[in-house]
Design brief:
The chain has 359 residues and is an alpha+beta fold. The chain has 2 domains: 2-138 and 256-358, Rossmann fold (3-Layer(aba) Sandwich), CATH 3.40.50; 151-251, no CATH class. 27% of the residues lie in helices and 27% in strands. Strands 1, 2, 6, 7, 8, 9 and 10 form a 7-stranded antiparallel beta sheet that branches. The protein starts with a strand and ends in a 15-residue tail after the last helix.
């Protein structure tokens, strides 16, 4: 688990440090840096435990350099875990890594490596078995989009069952994911259907009919026998179903979720958050959330919420734990966490939540 994350000169994150918990949410106005922070976490884990591949379409799975230009400061991303810390610096031309083991105090430094290299890929040159890197074993970014969730997707092979996941962060490939869950362990698929039925009582089962010779689509059968194709499914049901599959996907150390409340009925938001907390605990997976919903915040504790704000375009993002906001203890005696934030947020800067000393 990442206990502390530091970032410098990554988009609007000029100099930010945040303490993290197993389940943690970032709140704040639009354009305050919440999504950028999730992307920064994904970048440092990708650097530490996987690789970037250079193609004719650019770097895949994504370009972590955030448009670094000549003469600009280095980008610094650092993740602290129980085993120690890992940091990576990037410039327009090269990247450099450092890693320290907490127990021994030994620090490893990797030589700078150019982005443009004959191998056409970039990966960590530190020892993969290092305990710090072992604790950063992959990140999954989620920004579910209903249209992507509705699309048919291809059949998967037995070899792909051990790396089960969506095709992209929008959730494309949901039928394939459900097929994989069913093929790998039919009891797990049955449990998934039963859990969905608890929230949507008219649901009888989930079907995966062929959309073509090589692709599956999603279909719901209701208790009265009605068959519902994906184009007629509500966004809320699709998103809730996609969230419910997370515990069956291939393991990773961190799941990063943008606005899990989108499309959900208020009652379903609380249930979705309870499900995410249970998933985090059972799978030892850290869940980091960017949200605008006070109902999401109501399901968290004061240690699990950080407020982000950006006073102006030329000023970098600032972060403060909600428990350290101005006069928190007095206000927390009156409001729930979500209400506390909602009472002060203005949709712009949320400045009343910040102590005058921080301005």
């Amino acid at each position: 688990m990442i206990t502390k994350f530091t970032v410098e000169n990554y988009g609007c994150l000029k100099d930010v440090e945040v303490e993290l918990t197993p389940v943690h949410a970032f709140i704040g106005p639009n354009d305050s840096g919440k999504s950028t922070l999730l992307h920064a976490v994904r970048s440092v884990i990708q650097f530490a435990t996987s690789r970037f591949v250079q193609t004719d379409r650019g770097w895949l799975p994504f370009d972590p350099r955030m448009d670094v230009r000549d003469g600009e400061p280095k980008r610094l991303l650092g993740a602290h875990a129980s085993a120690g810390w890992y940091a990576v610096e990037t410039t327009k031309d090269a990247t450099e890594e450092r890693c320290q083991d907490k127990d021994s105090g030994e620090e490893q430094v990797a030589s700078p490596r150019p982005w443009n290299n004959p191998c056409r890929f970039l990966e960590s040159s530190l020892e993969r078995l290092h305990p710090v890197l072992a604790s950063l074993s992959g990140a999954r970014l989620i920004r579910f989009d209903a249209d992507a969730l509705r699309r048919p997707s291809g059949l998967i092979t037995p070899a792909q069952l051990d790396s089960l996941g969506f095709l992209n962060d929008r959730g494309e490939g949901l039928p394939s994911v459900l097929y994989g869950i069913r093929e790998k362990d039919h009891e797990s698929f049955t449990a998934l259907v039963e859990s969905m039925r608890g929230f949507f009582p008219t649901l009888k089962t989930i079907r995966l009919p062929a959309a073509s010779a090589s692709a599956l689509t999603l279909e719901l059968e209701l208790s009265d026998g009605t068959r519902v194709p994906p184009e007629h499914m509500s966004e809320g049901l699709l998103r809730f179903l996609a969230l419910a599959t997370l515990r069956f996907l291939s393991p990773c150390s961190v799941v990063l979720i943008e606005e899990p409340e989108n499309g959900l009925h208020p009652a379903r938001i609380a249930e979705a958050m309870q499900g995410l907390r249970a998933f985090a605990s059972a799978s030892n997976t850290q869940v980091l959330i960017a949200t605008h919903s006070p109902l999401v915040i109501d399901e968290l504790t004061a240690d699990e919420v950080t407020v982000l704000t950006r006073p102006s375009v030329g000023v970098g993002t600032r972060a403060i734990p909600i428990k350290n906001t101005h006069n928190f203890e007095k206000r927390a005696g009156v409001y729930k966490l979500g209400e506390l934030w909602l009472a002060y947020c203005d949709g712009n800067q949320e400045e009343p939540l910040f102590d005058a000393r921080l301005r």
